[in-house]
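Hi, here's the filled form for the chain we discussed.

Project: internal
Contact: R.S.
Residues: 148
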Amino acid sequence: MSPDTLRKSAPASSVTQAAAAALIAAVRTAAARIGFTPAIAVTDQGGHLKAFDRADDAPFLTAEVAFDKAWTAASFHIPTHTWNDYLANPRVAPLTGHPRLTAVGGGYPITENGRCIGGLGISGGSYEQDQQAAEEALAALGFELPGP
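And the returned structure, exactly as it came back:
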């Protein structure tokens, strides 16, 4: 392949600041209805923090966990709760040593038109509550939810 025909870059779409803020607002609404106080992290497609919010009475550890969930979801474009099955495989299990990888429900890729444009991580409730709030927020804003 010649240097003239070699594709040297690819477009990278990222969640906008406005969409990140809207996701945070939607999660806060869902969490209040569900009954927990969240920490919420939104990352771009590369796992870099785009927006963050932590309720006044959310435990301090929820901040780091929410960011790690968003990072994990953006990294492989899959929800964090699905990692439990993957990590049961001895060939994948060594990834448990990665300090950011989080296999706890509440992290989802932010997907638009089939492309991951970021990650959403929620911490503060049970893993089921975190997942529910994430799914509700993503659906409320018209983002794609992963299949079962």
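Let me know if anything looks off before we file it.
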